[in-house]
Amino acid sequence: MRPLILAMLAGLAAAPAAAAVLPVTVAAQAPAAGTLVLPLANAGDLARVGTALDAATQAAVSRALTAAAFDYKAKSTLSLRGIGTYDRLLIVGLGAAPTRVDLQNIGGIAAREAGKDKAVALVASHLPATAATDVALGYRLGSYSFDAYKKPEKPVVRAPLTVVGAGNTDEQASVAEAVAFTRDLVAEPANIIYPESFVERTRAAFAGVGGVKIEVLDVPAMEKLGMGAILSVGKGSTRPPRMLIVEYKGAGAPAKPIVLPGKGITFDSGGISIKPGTGMWRMKNDMAGAASVVGAVLALSKARAPVNVVAIAALAENMPDGNASRPGDVVRAMNGKTIEIISTDAEGRLVLADAMVYAKKYDPAAIVDLATLTGAVGGALGNEYAGLFSRQDWLADQLIAAGKATGEELWRLPLHPNHLEDVKSDYADIRNSTEGNQPGASHGAVFIGYFGDPKTPWAHLDIASMAMSSEAVPTVPKGATGYGVQLLDRFVRDFKPGN
């Protein structure tokens, strides 16, 4: 390859500057100009916004709300101009009983609806004590965009936010930064993010963060450990696989870690069992599970949380060349169990098989794996929930609670003894897929669980329908969502060992 082309590719693959979170400050008084956001749960709230609006402005806003028949439902908006000293007044409905997620949505709406080049203030003096934290997180999440390869017509200036009231606006700043890091990884094209560059992006993101240890297993190291499952997936690619391990232990953390394996297929062609061409471009996001588990550890470590957590990113590119694995091949995982490959497009569970075995070395308190594993989970749950599988009710309950608290919700799906019978092989210990009309999401989950220690609490999250969004919502853009970072951050912080 010519030196000029090599230099151009190196420039594209270089890690970007660390994601910066927008400044969000607290003030007792709103600025007199720019955009003012007023979250209202009912007509009476208008009188509770304090000195942000004088009497004449309040009266004008009240008339406008009545004329518009504003319903105050969550996420309803009304934009007003030419009232008072402000360039714009943005009324946002809170709903009758706003949750913390609702407050985050208010921040996201402010980020997406408010002007990009002037001051933005949001009145929170009449809201719960956590409002400043929640609104700030939502504003930062809603301000995210991925435009690394676009030539903008003019520079976009992101306005800082002033929260009128009291509270801590930086408590969740590390979460916002980690979500942006994860979204960036998932949004990048596969010629930029592949196993080796994923590792380098991770190293750059964690540079200078205390309490963190990063280990990378290359092909010789994985061969020595007998990781034949992940190695079989990477055989068809010129980009070799990697197993990336990021450990973080904060002050006062428990002795046993929570281990988070993540599927990291940086591009999934399907291998020899090649996918249809339509929509294949989306398979650059097949590493979203790995991106999210690393992002969760980034959030926890930057916040210096008192937790013990390990992310294992199982990274490979699934391509169809003459060296690629074939349907019918038998490979051996790190624990010596043999796997018959029915479909090379069921590769994510193969890389996670070795990650699950490797996780045993940490004697974990629990294992929770994340994977964009099956289309079947989307058919069952749509894009409202990720699929949750676990043998432990108490572990499932804690994950569901974390999902509700963060808005990254889960729905529990079945693991039945017959599912394991379905994936037994005539030629090996287990097969990676079944044929025909089968419960594909449950089969994928039971395959992964087969490689864990039965005594270790374990859950599998199938996030295939959640990693990318076809339309924007207040805190999530169209495209890469970063799903799982907030969920895992909350889960790890709140984790209690069960029986």
UniProtKB/TrEMBL annotation:
Residues 1-19 form the signal peptide. Pfam families: Peptidase_M17, Peptidase_M17_N. It comes from the Bacteria. Keywords: Aminopeptidase, Cytoplasm, Hydrolase, Manganese, Metal-binding, Protease, Signal. One of its GO terms (molecular function) is aminopeptidase activity. Mn(2+) 1 binds at D268, D345, E347. Binds 2 manganese ions per subunit. Its EC number is 3.4.11.1, 3.4.11.10. The keyword Signal applies. Its main location: cytoplasm. Mn(2+) 2 binds at K263, D268, D286, E347. It catalyses: Release of an N-terminal amino acid, Xaa-|-Yaa-, in which Xaa is preferably Leu, but may be other amino acids including Pro although not Arg or Lys, and Yaa may be Pro. Amino acid amides and methyl esters are also readily hydrolyzed, but rates on arylamides are exceedingly low; Release of an N-terminal amino acid, preferentially leucine, but not glutamic or aspartic acids. SUPFAM superfamilies: Macro domain-like, Zn-dependent exopeptidases. The active site is at K275, R349. Residues 343-350 form the Cytosol aminopeptidase domain. It is found in: Cytoplasm. Its cofactor is Mn(2+). Belongs to the peptidase M17 family. Presumably involved in the processing and regular turnover of intracellular proteins. Catalyzes the removal of unsubstituted N-terminal amino acids from various peptides. This is Probable cytosol aminopeptidase. It comes from Sphingoaurantiacus capsulatus. The gene is pepA.
